[in-house]
Amino acid sequence: MRWLLVFVLAFVLFNGLSAWLRRIGLGRLPGDFVLRVRGREIYVPLASSLVLSLLAMLIGMIV
After folding, report:
1. Radius of gyration of the chain (CA)
2. According to the 3-state scheme, what is the secondary structure of the chain?
3. Is the Cα dihedral 38, 23, 32, 3 positive or negative?
4. Which among 4, 19, 22, 35 could disulfide-bond with 42, CB atoms 3.0 to 4.6 Å apart, if both were Cys?
5. Domain boundaries, the chain
C-alpha cells in the first residue's frame, strides 16, 4: 500500500512540475508517456520516476 501512495505522489508532482522537468530533460525519456484526453495532457513518467528514485536511493546510501 505504501508503494502505491509514493507512486501517486510522484505522479502528482510530475504533473505539477512538468514544464520545469522538461527543461532539465526529465519527462522525455523512453518510457515516459503523454496521454491527451479531451484537450488535457496527462503525463505518466515511468522512466523519469525510476531515475529519480535511483538518485534518491544513492543519496540515502551516502547520507
Report:
1. 13
2. CHHHHHHHHHHHHHHHCHHHHHHCCCCCCCCEEEEEECCEEEEEEHHHHHHHHHHHHHHHHHC
3. negative
4. 35
5. 2-62
What gap in Å lies between CA 12 and CA 16, rounded to an integer?
Answer: 6
Helix 2-16 / helix 46-62 crossing angle, nearest 10 deg: 110
Separation CA 25–CA 39 (nearest Å): 24
Tens-digit pLDDT profile for residues 8-63: 777 777 677 777 777 777 767 888 888 899 988 887 878 887 887 787 788 888 87
46 — phi, psi (to 5°)?
-70, -50
